[in-house]
Amino acid sequence: MTVFRDLSQHILDIAENGIQAGATVLHIKITEDLSPEQDTLTIAIQDNGRGMDALALARVTDPWFTTRTTRKVGLGIPFFRQTAEMCEGRFEIFSTVGQGTLTQATFRHSHIDRPPLGDVGGTILCLIVGFPDGDVVYCHDVNEKSFMLNTHEIRQVLGDDIPFSDPEVLTFLRQTLEEGEQSL
User: Fold this and answer.
1) Which of 73, 85, 125, 135 is most buried, most CB within 10 Å of its CB?
2) pLDDT (average), residues 71-87
3) Would you state the torsion angle of the CA atoms of residues 77, 107, 102, 157, taken in this order, to the nearest 10 degrees?
């Protein structure tokens, strides 16, 4: 059984869905508005994969529905939705065949039941290394502060000869993600 202990695990699950749907680019955006008026945490994951038709989109939050052939249930999206709604938030998913999918969950930031973000930097690093032919655009905003990492830009500097799995590149990516998250 799938158990998501923190929100970074939800991010990984949704991003993997996009990769399996043939995406070449993943956009992951975390927005935290800590003002008392807003008090929100929003996670948006967008891919440019196959997308879903209206029938699949209508059923995607049903735990007994999955397009995967390796199992008969799809719990990731229903759990993400349930977690958001349980924390006085909302869940939305939009998809267009041939264009991709946007999955977005908003939580009341201070809600006592909101899971922690978890190791988002580690999750992003895992996606970058596990998605060598695609690009990840990661942005995390906290009030007025912002951090962004775009693997397309890094790939242009590295060229085609140096993979993201190269030890020096991994060290650079890990440090960049850690420093970026700490700056928020």
Assistant:
1) 125
2) 80
3) -110
Are 124 and 28 in contact, with CB atoms under 8 Å apart? yes
Tokens coding 122: 């580690």
Q: What is the DSSP string of 34-89?
A: -STTT-EEEEEEEE-S----HHHHHHTT-TT--S-SS-S---HHHHHHHHHHHTT-
- Alpha carbons 137 and 149: distance in angstroms, whole number: 6
Q: pTM here?
A: 0.91
Distance (Å, whole) CA 31 – CA 26: 16
How far apart are alpha carbons 115 and 38 in whole angstroms?
18
Q: Is 180 helix (H, G, I), strand (E, B) or coil?
A: helix
What is the mean predicted confidence (pLDDT) over 35-55? 96
Q: Give the number of other CB atoms < 10 A from CB of residue 112.
A: 6
**Among 10, 2, 1, which Cα is nearest to 120's?**
10
> How does DSSP classify residue 117?
-
pLDDT confidence of residue 72: 41
102: closest CA among 159, 162, 46?
46
52 contact partners, CB below 8 Å, separation of at least 6: 60, 95, 97, 101
β-strand partners of 146:
141
- Give Dmax over CA atoms of the chain in angstroms: 49
Contact between 78 and 63 (Cβ < 8 Å): yes
